[in-house]
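User: ok so my PI wants both of these folded by tonight, can you help

Assistant: No problem, let's get them done. Here's the first:
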Amino acid sequence: MMAKNKEPRPPSYAVSVVGLSGTEKDKGNCGVGKSCLCNRFVRSKADEYYPEHTSVLSTIDFGGRVVNNDHFLYWGDVAQSGEDGIECRIHVIEQTEFIDDQTFLPHRSTNLQPYIKRAAASKLQSAEKLMYICTDQLGLEQDFEQKQMPEGKLNIDGFLLCIDVSQGCNRKFDDQLKFVNNLYIQLSKSKKPIIIAATKCDECVDHYLREVQAFASNKKNLVVVETSARFNVNVETCFTALVQMMDKTRGKPKIIPYLDAYKTQRQLVVTATDKFEKLVQTVRDYHATWKTVSNKLKNHPDYEEYINLEGTKKAKNTFSKHIEQLKQEHIRKRKEEYINALPRALNTLLSNLDEIELLSWSEALKVMEKRPDFQSCFVVLEKTPWDETDHIDKVNDRRIPFDLLSTLEAEKVYQNHVQHLISEKRRVEMKEKFKKTLEKIQFISPGQPWEEVICFVVEDEAFKYITDGDSKEVYARHQREIVEKAKEEFQEMLFEHSELFYDLDLNATPSTDKMSEIHAVLSEEPRYKALQKLAPDRESLLLKHIGFVYHPTKETCLSGQNCMDIKVEELLANSLLQQDHGRSNLYHDSANIDKINLFILGKDGLAQELANEIRTQSTDDEYALDGKIYELDLRPVDAKSPYLLTQLWTSAFKPHGCFCVFNSIESLTFIGECIAKIRAEASQIRRDRYMANLSFTLILANQRDSVSKNLPILRHQGQQLANKLQCPFVDVPAGTYPRKFNEAQIKQALRGVLEAVKHNFDVVSPVPTIKDLSEADLRIVMCAMCGDPFSVDLILSPFLDSHSCSAAQAGQNNSLMLDKIIGEKRRRIQITILSYHSSIGVRKDELVHGYILVYSAKRKASMGMLRAFLSEVQDTIPVQLVAVTDSQADFFENEAIKELMTEGEHIATEITAKFTALYSLSQYHRQTEVFTLFFSDVLEKKSMIESSYMSDSTRESTHTSEDVFPRSPRGGSLDYNYPDSEDDAEGPPPYSPIGDDVRLLPAPSDRSKYRLDLEGNEYPVHSTPINCHDHERNHKVPPPIKPKPLVPRTNVKKLDPNLLKTIEAGIGKNPRKQPSRVPAAPPEDTEQSDNYAEPIDTIYKHKGFADDIYAVPEDSQNRIIKVRNSIVINTQGEEENGFSDRVSKSHGERRPSKYKYKSKTLFSKAKSYYRRTHSDASDDEAFTTSKGKRKGRHRGSEEDPLLSPVETWKGGIDNPAITSDQELDEKKMKKKPHKVKEDKKPKKKTKTFNPPIRRNWESNYFGMPLQDLVTPEKPIPLFVEKCVQFIEDTGLCTEGLYRVSGNKTDQDNIQKQFDQDHNISLESMGVTVNAVAGALKAFFADLPDPLVPYSLHQELLETSKIMDKTERLHELKEIVKKFHPVNYDVFRYIITHLNRVSQQYKTNYMTADNLSICFWPTLMRPDFENREFLSTTKIHQSVIETFIQQCQFFFYNGEIVEAPNPVACQPPPSNPVQMVEPMVPLQLPPPLQPQLIQSQLPADPLGII
C-alpha cells in the first residue's frame, strides 16, 4: 500500500514490542526488557536512556495522557536510513500490562482482553495519547516533551517478540518460553512479520539462548536477534531486520552474533573514551569545575561522541577522577617538597649533633618547637590533616606543616639527618686529620701538584676514609694556605731587604743588572726558594713590589687598607674634630672673659694660704689685673683629699685653671703625682675633654729662715716639672718678703691662666686665626711602617692626649699642630705623620727639621724599612727612633724583640740620635714629654738645618750638588761588546766616549770630609764605598783593564760621571794584595771587612801629582785616574770643571752627608748585600763561568761585577768579597805582571790546584785525608753515608738534584753540627735535600787530594781516546783498580749513588750526563788556571759520565750497558764488598709534561734558580 503511494514522504512502519507481562507472579520481580529495548532504540543517547521502567502505576498515572488508560505505551518514532539509502520512519509501541499500586492487579482499561490477545492486535487507537519517555514523566507531563501518537491510532506492521535470556528475577525460563509460545501463536495469526529479540544477552544464560534459538528454528522465517539494551548491542539491528521483513523491497536482514556486535560496540566506546580522557587531561588546574569545562567542551566532537555513548554522568565521573588525580599529584609534590625541605630545616634548628644524637623523633619535635626560628621553618595549622586544608594552595608559603612531621617519612628524614651529622662529623674530623697530615709533610711546597704528593699519603687512614674530591679539596685548601703564607712571607722578606730597593729613584725602571742583583741576594732566602714552583707569581710579586717602590701611593700600598697614611688620616679626622668641638663649646665665651674660676691645689694648708692671700689683694672677690676687673671664684683643695677628682669638676664649677703651690720637695712630688692622676683620669675616662685641656701653673712659695737654703733646689726641680708638664712656673721674685706669696707672683699666674684660656679659644675658633703653615717653628715628620702590629692611636697618643694639640692647616689631613713650651718660649710644632713610602718624597723635596722614625720591635721588616729610609737622610737632621712593643718585659722574654730593640738603640748611638720605646700597655710612655728632649735638640739645630737645606736647593738649581734623593739614569740598556782577549784591550767600554786627555774630577756627591768613628779615630768617608749606591744605581760593569805605561796628560777634560762612580766603586775595595811603600792599616776598632779605604802609596809617581793617593787604576784608554783622600785635586783650575774655589777649598767646612756613612750598622748592612750578590757559584757553574770569561765576557756567572777570579783589575784593586787562595793570587800576579814597581816576593810553585777554603771554622773532620776518616770495618766515611742515605730516602726525585745549589748557610750548619756530634740526624735538622747535596759535594771538595788521584788523570784521558767502546771500558776498568783501596771503595759508593739518581731522570731531570757535569770538577779537582787543562774538560766530564752509566760493569761485574739512558745498578748479592744495596725503582707519580721542562735547564740569568 505504501509502495503504491506516489507521495515523496518516506514510508512509515509501526512496530509492536511484546513479551512476557503481567503481575509479579506472572513475570517475576522484573520485566523481560521490553521498555529498555524501546528506550535504547528510540532515544539511543546515554543521557536519555533510563534503565528502570515500572509497570506498577497509580490510578492517576494510569489515567494520565501518557498511559491514557491503555495497556500499551507509545514510544515515539525514529527516522532510519537503510543501506540502500531509503529512509523510513518507525513508530514503536510497547504492549505491556500496568498493575494497580493499590490492588496489585491489572488496571482496568477499555480493552478487557488478556495480554496475549491484546498484544497481537494489529490496530491500536488512543486519542491524544502522549509519547512515553520515562517513569518520572508520569504526572509531570508538562515538564517533558509532549508528542502525541499520530492521529491517535496506529496500524501494527510487525512484531518484536522479546525473550529474556538472563537468569531472571524469581522467574522460570520454561514458564516464560511457554508464555512466548502462546503469544507467538496469537501473533502469527496476524500474518505480520515477527522477530525474536533475545534481551539481556549481557547476562545471558547459554542454554536459555540455545532454547530460544531452538524455538525459533522450529518456526518458519522466525529470526532471533541477540540484544543488550544496557550496552546498546544489536538494538537497532533487530528493528532494522524487522523493517526489512516488512518491506519486501529491502534485502534479507543481516543478523550479527551478539559477541561480534558487542566487540564492535565496546571498541567504539573505548575509542571514544580514550579521546574524551585525552580531552579531559588538557585540564591541569584541579580547581576547575565540571560546569566550566563541559561548557567549554560541549561543541567538541570527541566530547559529544563520548556523551552520546557513555552519558554525562560517566563523563563527569571521568572528569572528577582526573581532577582528583591532579589534586593528589599536587599534594604529592607539595609533600615531596616539604620532605625535601625538611633536612634544611633540621640543619637550621637541630644542627648540634651533641644535643640530638640520643633524642627520639618525638623529643626532637619538642626541642624544635622551642627554637626561635621555628616559625620560619614550620607552620602549625588549625585544621588537620594539612592536605585537606587550603594550605596546599599556598604555594608561596614554603613553611612545612607541622602535622606532616608525624609521618614515617619525616621520622626517617630525621634519622637520616642524625646519621648525616654523625658521618659529616666524622668526615670533617678526617678532613682535618688529613689536613694536619699534610701540614706535617715538610716537603710539600707552594704550587706542588697533588699528583706529586698522593703517593706519600696513600696509606694514611684519613686519606682512605674521605673521598677523592674531599682529599683534593683539602689539599687545595692547604695549598692556598701555604701559598698565601709563602706570599706574605715573601712580601715581608722584600720589606726586610728594603735597602735593596730604596736606593732606587722614583718614577724609574730597574735595569737588568739591578734585577740580577736583587735576585742574587734574595735567592739565598728560604722564603724566596719557597715559591720556586710558583716562579711567575714570585716574579709578579717582586715586580709589583718594585713598582710600588717606584710609584708609592696610599692607593697602591701593598698593605691595602692597613696603609699608615689611610689610618692616620681617619684617626686625625675623628680625633681632632671631636677634640676641637669640645674645646669650642668650652671656650665659646672666653674671648671676653670677666670671671675666672680657679682651683688651688696644695699640701698641708698651702692651698688655703694662697687663697687667703689672693682674697686679701681682692675687693669683694674682684681682682684688678692690667686695667681690668675680674671676678674670682677660688676653690682651695688639699692634695691629700680623697675627693680631689670629684671636687675638680662639677656642673656648677668649671675651673679655667689650677694653681699648684709647693714649698718643699715632698710637696712638689705630691703635686706632680696629683697632676698625673688628673691627666690620666682625663685620658682614660675621656668623660670631658676639658679636663685634658685644664691649665696648670706651678707656684713656688717663699721660704723662711733655715729653709731658704733649699730654694735653688726647689726652683730647679719646679722648673723641671713645669717643662715636663708643659705648664708655666712662677718663681719667687728677687728680694726679701715677709709673706709666702708675693703680688707679682699672683699676677703672673693669673696672666698665665688668661693666656691659656685665650690660646685654647684661638686654636678652635671658627675664624681662621691659625698661623699660616709657613709660620710653624718646627716641622717634624713621623714615619711608620704600613702593616706594623700596633694601632695608630698608640704612636699618636703622645700628641692627641696633649691639651696643646690641634688640627693643622686645611688640606693637611695627615698633620697636626702642637703648642709646646721649649726652653723659655711656646713653640708651634707641625707633626706630619706619614708612611715610610710617602716620606721619601718629603725627604727629598721639603724642609724637615727632624724625623721621628717609628718601628715595631716585633717585625724585622719594620726595622729594614727604617734602615733603608734612614740611610738616605742627611746627617744634619736630628732623628728620634721609637721602638714599639707591648711592654718592657718583652725585651727580656723575647730574643727577637730584644735583638731589634738593641739594633735600634745601637743605630741611635752611632748617629747620635734619640731612642725611646712606646709600650702599648703603659700610659706613661704615651705622654708628649717623651719627645721633649728631641724637640729641644731640633730647635737647637734649626738654623743649621735650614742653612743646609737652602744651600742644597741652590746647588740643585745649578746642578752642582747631589740630590737629597739621588736620581739614576734609566735609559735603555745597551748590549756592549767586550774585548775578546787580553791582548785586545782597545774595545769600546760600556760608557759614553772619553777623550784622550781626561783627568778624573769628583762628582758633587764625592766631596766629603773626614769623620770620627766611635773610638775617636779619624777616617775618610767616601761618597762611593764598596757597595755604594751610586754603583747600584748605575748598574754598569767595567771592562777588563790592561795596564799600560803611565803617561802624564795635559788639557784635562771632565770625565763622564758614570765611569767615575764605577771606578770609585773599585777604589773603595780593600787592597789586601797591593804592595805599599807606606803601610796603612785600618783602625783597630774597624774590621778589615768593613771595606773602608786604606791609604797606600802610589805605585808609580809622576810629576804634578801628590804622594798620598789611595789607588791609581788605569782605564783602557791609558788615562791616569787618581783620587786623593776622596777629594781630587784639580791642577787645571776649579772653575773650568764647574767648581768654585769656595767649594774646592772647603776643607774646614762640613758638608752634609748621609746617615748610612755615619753608622757602621747601616753601612755594613748595605755592604752585606753587595757581598752576597757576588758570592761563590756552585761547582758546575764555576767551570762554565771560567770558560765564559776566557772569551772576554766579564759577567759569566754570579761573580763580582767589578772583578772576576780569572781577570782581575790590573791596578791592584782586589775584591775582599771573594776569598781566594794566596798561592793562586800570587800565580796570577806572576802570570800578569804589572808595569809598575812592586815588592818581590818568593812564590811557591805547586803542581796541584788547591781549592779555596769554604769553611771559616776549625774542623777535625772536614778537610782531613780520606784515610783518617775510614776503618776496615767502615770503609765509607760516616758523613758521606748519612748524606747519601738522606738523599736516597727523601730526595731522589728532587728536580735538579746536585745541579740546584742549596742554601750555603744550611750547608755550613750541617757540617758544623756533624763536627759537634757525629750521630746527628739530618732529618731532625729540617734542611732541604739540595742543602745536604751541597754539603756532600763540599766534603769531597775539601779533601786534601781529589777522590780521583791526579796520578791517574793522564791515563784516564788517554784511555778515553780509544775508539773501540769495549776495549775502552775494559781499559778504564783496569785503571780504576789502580785506585788506592780507600779511594776505590768511596768512589764506587758515590758512583753507585749517582747511578741511582740517574735512574730517576724522568722526575729529577738529572741524567748521567747532567750529573757528570755537576760532579766531575769535585771528584777530579781540576786546575782551572792551567790553559792546557781547559782543552780537555769535556774528556774529564765524559770519563765520569761513563763511570755513572757503566756502574754495573765497572764495580759489580755486570754487562756493558748499550742504551744511552741510565740503567739500574744491580750488583750480584754474593759480592762481599758491596757497600750499597741495589735500589728498587720507586713507584713515583708521573712527571710533568716533558714539553714544559727541558732535560737540561739553562743557567738562569736572573739567579732565580
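One down. Here's the second:
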Amino acid sequence: MAAGRGARRPRGAASVWLCCLLLLLLLLGRPAAAGGGPAPQSPGAGVRTFTPFHFLVEPVDTLSVRGSSVILNCSAYSEPLPKIEWKKDGTFLNLVSDDRRQLLPDGSLFISNVVHSKHNKPDEGYYQCVATVESLGTIVSRTAKLTVAGLPRFISQPEPSSAYAGNSAVLNCEVNADLAPFVRWEQDRQPLLLDDRVAKLPSGALVISNVTEADGGLYRCVVDGGGGPPKFSDEAELKVLADPEVPSDLVFLKQPPSLVRAVGQSVVLPCVASGLPAPTIRWLKNEEALDTDSSERLVLLAGGSLEISEVTQDDAGTYSCVAGSGNETIEAQAELTVQAPPEFLKRPASLYAHESMDIVFECEVTGKPAPTVKWVKNGDVVIPSDYFKIVKEHNLQVLGLVKSDEGFYQCIAENDVGNAQAGAQLVILEHAPATTGPLPSAPRDVVASLVSTRFIKLTWRTPASDPQGDSLTYSVFYTKEGTARERVENTSRPGEMQVTIQNLMPATVYIFRVTAQNRHGSGESSAPLRVETQPEVQLPGPAPNIRAYATSPTSITVTWETPLSGNGEIQNYKLYYLEKGTDKEQDIDVSSHSYTLNGLKKHTEYTFRVVAYNKHGPGVSTQDVTVRTLSDVPSAAPQNLSLEVRNSKSIVVHWQPPPPATQNGLISGYKIRYRKASRKSDVTETLVVGTQLSQLIEGLDRGTEYNFRVAALTINGTGPATDWLSAETFESDLDETRVPEVPSSLHVRPLVTSIVVSWTPPENQNIVVRGYAIGYGIGSPHAQTIKVDYKQRYYTIENLDPSSHYVITLKAFNHVGEGIPLYESAVTRPHTVPDPTPMMPPVGVQASILSHDTVRVTWADNSLPKHQKITDSRYYTVRWKTNIPANTKYKNANATTLSYLVTGLKPNTLYEFSVMVTKGRRSSTWSMTAHGTTFELVPTSPPKDVTVVSKEGKPRTIIVNWQPPSEANGKITGYIIYYSTDVNAEIHDWVIEPVVGNRLTHQIQELTLDTPYYFKIQARNSKGMGPMSEAVQFRTPKASGSAGKGSRLPDLGSDYKPPVSGSNSPHGSPTSPLDSSVLLVLIVSVGVVTIVAVVVVAVFCTRRTTSHQKKKRAACKSVNGSHKYKGNAKDVKPPDLWIHHERLELKPIAKSPDPNPIMTDTPIPRHSQDTTPAGTSSDGSTHQRRNSYRGHESEDSMSTLAGRRSMRPKMMMPFDSQPPQPVISAHPIHSLDNPHHHFHSSSLASAARSHLHHPGSPWPVATSMSLSDRANSTESVRNTPSTDTMPASSSQTCCADHQDPEGATSSSYLASSQEEDSGQGLPTAHVRPSHPLKSFAVPAVPPPGPPTYDPALPSTPLLSQQALNHHLHAVKTASIGTLGRSRPPMPVVVPSAPEVQETTRMLEDSESSYEPDELTKEMAHLEGLMKDLNAITTA
C-alpha cells in the first residue's frame, strides 16, 4: 500500500485537478437525484441518481359474477420497462400454462369465464401486481379483492300487502348482499320503471309513495346476476284501499338501520311510515334538523328515505327519522359510521447513503380505523431484527448499511376500508476516490478505555502521518463477531479522539476499527480491536418474603419486599398470576410492594410470582405462591329437581348439585322448602346436611298438592333456590307389592313425522303406578323407550319417518317392575298430508290495565306441566283490537312467556284480547277473549268547530257552540271558555267561563257593543285539562240605541278623578275637616233616603206571593235532595239599586266577638277609565293569583262579567277529591287602624261571590264586607273541609238568590295598606288588567236568610295564573284564591244578569220573594243599619 501511495505522488498538480473535478461532479449529481431525473451511472466516478420506478395504475376491488370476464388493471413505469407478475393470496400465479388467466401487454390481468361454485372458488381472493426491474429492484401494488357473487338466494320475498290511497307501501326482497345491485322489479310481469315516487332501496326492497289505484297489482323481484338465468321471487299482490276517512295508527314500514360507509361512498337511510292522515317525514342529525332542500348531497327519496352522496367524516353521527301524522309522531334512530381508507400524511423519501451508515425511512399515515403498517423491501416483507427496526410507530430504521440493502422500500398501510402503498429508493454510494494529496495513516493505540455491559468507550492517538491532528475527523467502524454487517459512528468535532458506542448487548464480542479523514479523503484503518462487553450482573435478585392471601371471594392481596441484590434502583415490579388449570399467565405492573387483584373467580386457586425491574431490565423471578379465593354462597340453584310420590303421606325429593363453577365453595348441605299449593304463605323448611342428593318428606296430607324448592348451602350461606315444583300425594295408600296391571286403553294417531299416543290408566286403581313406559320402533317396539309421569295421559313421539309402520307398546310401572304391555301399530302419513293436529288454545286469558295505554295480558297453557315452565320452542301470539270503529283490524305480537305487555293503546278504550300458541307447524285456535278498558288520559286535542253567533234580538249576548274534542281520552266533565279583546294577551289575562257537564253551547251576555272578541275553549275530563282551541274572532253588533237600562256606568269623561277624602285619598293627602264633615252629611242623607226606599219596596214585594214562586221553592228542595243544581235564567231577583256614595264608610252590622272589626271602604268610580291605579298587595307568600272560574251553568247557560245586575245561584266547584287547600275570599279586606290607604280594586273574575256563613251570626252580610272576611272567621273558612256539616237551612234557601250588593261585592274597591295585608296573612284579591268586556251593574238588595254551604252541588275546578304587578285601569276583576291548586268545594254565588227588557218583570216578581217572617228580619237588619248611620253622623 505504501508503494501505491508513492507512485501517485509524483503526478503533481494534474492529480489534484482531477480529484477536484470528480468531487464537483459528485456534488452536482445529488440535487439531480433528488429531483427525480434519469439515473445514469458515471462510469468513471461511480456517481448514481435515483431511478423513476412507480405504478401508473393499480388494481382496485372488483365484483364479478359467475361466467363473466374480469380485468384487474396494472401498469408500472420504469426505464427499462419492468417485468409484471401477479400474486393471488400471496402466491405468484403461473400464467404461462393458464387457459383462463392471461397477462395483457400493459401488465393487467385478464380472467375469462370466472369460475365460482359452492365448493370451488378458484378466482375469488386478493390480487397484487408485482413489478421488477433487473439490477434495480421490485415494487408491489396495493392489494385488490375480487369478489364473485354467489348463486341468487332469496333471504326474504315480497308478501301480499295493502295500502290506503295516498299512503306509502313497502315490498321487501332481500337477496345475498353481493347480488343486491342486480335486483329489479316487475309489476304484473312487466318491468317497473323507477322515478321520484317509486324507488328501490340498496337492500332490494321496493318503496312506493303516494300510492294510487294504478299501483295495485302483482309484484315480483328479479335477480339478473349470478351468471345464470334470471331468478324470480314469489309474486305478491299490492291492494290499494280507499281512504276510510278515519285516522289510523302511525307505524313505520321501514326503519333505518345503523350503517358503516367509507368516505366518498353514497348511503341510503331508509325510512317509510304509514298512517292516516298520510304522514310527513323529516330528518334530524344529532338532534338538529337537516335541511334537505338547500343541500346538493342530501336527497329525500320516495317514502321519505334519506340519501347522502359522497359521504365525508362530518356526515357521521346519529340520524333520527321523525314521522308525523296529525297530533301523533314517532321516531326511529340510526347510527352512521364513516370510515376512511389509509392516506399518507408523509411518504417515504428516497435516500443516498454509504455502507455502514444508519438510515431512517419516515412514513406517516392516517385512516379510520387506524391503519396497520408493514414495510416491504423489493417485494419482500421486512422482518424486524437487530438491524431493521420499526421506530416512532411507523418509521423503518436500518442500521449498518451493506450493499445488499440497496433497493426499493415500500410502506404499506391497511385497514378495514382498504390499503395503500408508498415507496422510496435507497442508493448505496461508493466512497469517492481520494484526491491527489497525502492521506492520514492509521490512528495509533486504539484501546477500549471503558467497557460496560451495554456500551464501550474507545480512545486513540493521532496517526503517525499527522502528529498534530487538529483538522482530522475519525470514524469508528464496529460489528458483532460472526456477522458481516458493519456500523459506523463518527466523532462529533475535528480533533476529538474518543467515542462511546451505545446500545450494545451484554457479554457479546465486538470488533472495532478506526479511520481518520482529512481534506483529501479517508486514510488507513487501524488494526481490528476485539472487545467483549461485560455480562449483565446488575439485575435485581428475587423479591423476598412474597406472601398472598385472599381478602374476599373475588380478590387476593400479594405482598413482598425489596430484593437484597438490587444493584441499582428498582424501577418497578411485575406481578405474574395464573389460574390453576389454565396455561395463560397474566401480568400487572406494580410500583409498590403490594397489590390487590380484584375480579377473580370465587373459591379458585391462583399462583403468583414477582419480578423486579431496574434500568438494566428484569431480574430474577420469585418462587410461585398458591392461594385460593374465599368461598361464597352458591350463585346457581341445584339442578334437575324431581319429585317422586311414595304414598299418600310422603314424597321423595331428588336433585343434583349446582354446576361446579357456580358452587363457590364446598357444598355443606341443602335446604328444602315445601308448602301446600293452597296455602303458599305457610312454608316448611328441612335441612339436609352433607352431599346427600335426595330426601324423603313424610307426614303430608292425603290427596294434597305440594310445592317444593331446593337451595344449596356453603359455610357462607344459602344460594338461590330452584323454581317451585309440584306433586300431589295419593288419595289412599296403594299396593306396591306387585306390578301394575295393563293400561285399560291405548290409542294412537299418526301424523307425518310423529304419532300422538293417548291412554287410560289400569282399571285396578289400588296398585301404585309410578309412570308409563312407551316403546316404539319400525316393526318392533323395542327400538326406543320413553318413560313419562304417572299423571300423564298422552305423549307425542317425534322425529319419525313418514310413511313408515311403527309398533308401539305401553306399560305401567312402579318400584316392583313393569306391568303387562299393551300393543298398537300405526303408519305415519306421507309428506303430502298436512298436519291437522291443532294445539290446545291457552286458557285463563286475563287483561290487567296498567295505564292509559298499557295492558298486561296473562294466560295459562294446559299443554305445559303444572309449573307452567316452557322448555320447548313454542311461542304465543297475542292479538288485540277495539270495536270502535267497527272495521278496526287486529294487531298481533309474539311472546315466548305466559304474559305480554301491550303498549301504544288508546286511552279510555275497550279492547279485546285473545291468545294462540304455536309450536313448529302446529298452532292452536284463538283462546276465549278477555276485555279491558284503558284508563283515562287528559284530552290531547282541543274542542272542534268552535263558532260564535249573536243572539237574535240581544246584540250584547252571544252564543258559543262547539263540538267535543276528537281525542277526548275519557268522559268530558266540563269545558272552559276563555275570551278576550286582545288575542295576544297572556292567557291569565283572558276572562274565564266554566261549562259544567258535556254541554256543547253556552251564552255570554253583557258584552260591549261593536267590539271584537276572541274565544278559546278547553275541555276537561277526570284526568285534567286538554289543549286550547285556536282563537275564534267575533265582533259584537253596533249599538242601535241605548246600551240598556242599568247596564253601563254613565260616561264621565276621561278627565274624571275620584273625589278625595282625608282617609281615602289614593296618596294619603288630607283635606280640610269642614269639607269632610259636609261631604259625610250628604252621604248619610242620601243613604237614609235610599234605605227608606228599599224598605218600601220590600214591603210591597212581600204582598206578592204567587204560585209560581212556591213551585220554585219546591223545586229547590227537590234539587237539594238529589244533590244537583239546575238553575234557570229566569229566576227572579230583587231589584238592583245603585248607591252613588263616594266616601261612605259602614261599620260592622253583626256583633262579632272579633276585637278588631274590619270595615271596608268602597269608593265606586263613575267610569271604568277613571279609576286611580293602585299598587298590588305585597303578600309574597301567597303569590297572588288571578283568573278564577267565572260564572255557572244555568239551563240557558248564561253568564256575565263582574258588575252584572243580578246574582246566579250558588255553585260548588269540584277538585277531583284532592287535598283541601285554603279557600280565599274575594271580598275586600280592610282595616281602619292605618290612616293611610291605597286603592286596591278587586272583583270576581267569574263575577261570583261566595257568601261564607259564620255560625255565630244570624245575619247575612249585606255590605261589601263578609263576616268571613274577619280574621278569625277567615281562618275557619280556610280549614273547612268539603265534607263539613252544613246548616239545615240550606234546603230552604237554595233558590233564594243571596246576593251582595254589586257595588260592594262584585265591583267593590278595597283600600288597605300593604303592611296590613301581609301582616294578617290574609289572601287578598288583586287588581287585574281590564278589558272593555262588560259594564258595571246596579247592586241588588240583599235577600234575607243566611247563605249556606251545599257540599253536594256540582262543582267546577279553579285554574291558576300568577298576578302581574303593574298599574291597571278600567274594570277590575279578582281571583278566587290560589289558581290551579286543588281545594275542597266552596260555595260560590254566581251572578246571572237578566235581560234589560226583563227588569220590570223582575221587580214585579220580587214582591213575592219575601215572607212575613223574612220581612221582620229584614226590617230589624235595616234598623240596625240606620243606627250605624246615625252614629257616623254624630261622630
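The mean pLDDT is 74. The chain has nine helices and 91 strands. Good luck tonight!
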